[in-house]
């Protein structure tokens, strides 16, 4: 539990270490997803989803960017919680080592869910503002892909390097206590 | 590199809005977010604008904080305004430019949408500008409590939120220390190709994770040692208090909703 809290804080901090880009309507490339994925692979999808949810809510309190009630839900708690679902793919072999292929698949799957959430949110709120006849679907999905794609690539390479240098990050230590994990 | 980051938006001044309970502010914001969408013609937008100005004045937060909050959406507002100005063909033609005719209806729609986005952003930032994150967390916990019977760990979530909020500055300091330590060893975070940059990034991120995991473990041990057992029967240092002014605030917000619903053009 304390670990979840720490990782949430870490995700927030990493979101500040972002690469400046031309993304004027929200979203930027940062390493924010790394802690959520580590938690998802380390403790399974439940803890991953919880971490993601908290990251979303705390992020909402710090850098809110609200333009529509439904957008609030689809842009903050949901996409980050969805990232935690990557833990569903945390398949271990007999020695307890994580299967990298499955982990990669899980990461891409979770990132795709996040993309969907942001994309739909964009369609809803931008659709409520844009004049009739404009293709908001195309606009929203292309726009969200433009920052999520580089972010996923960077997250992927950082996670790969971590798995090379510190594979024990992905293995959980069991401990009997209410507060750990 | 990390020092000039300003986190959190809370502005510590005393005002009627600051004194409100975080719960009433959450309810009001939620209601107002829906109310904003009620406005659809001149008078209702005017009423909306007046409400927002009134709340901003009540908050006594210096205006530059709102300007700062509006800056990122400014481009969006201009963009949608132009879209409407060019592509709405209602009303009469005001003037023609580069083969496009600007209609009065387009300008009107553009201004309305700009007010709508602007008020949503300002209202949302009002909440974070006048409420401490920790009070917001307590408010969240209150609203999550009913979901406890469906297995939602309300108290635990609130606790984790407050721990992470508390630790953001601490970890920021730690991140800064690691960056300096690696810089002293020759790491350069600003130069190099994508690949070398990623490698220096890893040299920064791995120690950060190691130290955070360590800190989490120490903290868990400390909590265990002090006999922490979870939410049942725990008392609080800060207790949220619902006062008369909170009821009044909710009634005022409800009143704004009624006024806008009446003014609204069906």
Automatic annotation (TrEMBL), chain B:
Topology of the protein relative to the lipid bilayer: Multi-pass membrane protein
InterPro entries documented for this protein: ABC/ECF_trnsptr_transmembrane (IPR003339)
Pfam family, one: CbiQ
Tree of life domain: Bacteria
Keywords: Membrane, Transmembrane, Transmembrane helix
UniProt GO cellular component terms: plasma membrane
Compartments where located: Membrane
Chief place where the protein resides: membrane
TM annotation in the entry: 29-58, 70-98, 110-130, 244-263
Name of the protein described by the UniProt record: Energy-coupling factor transport system permease protein
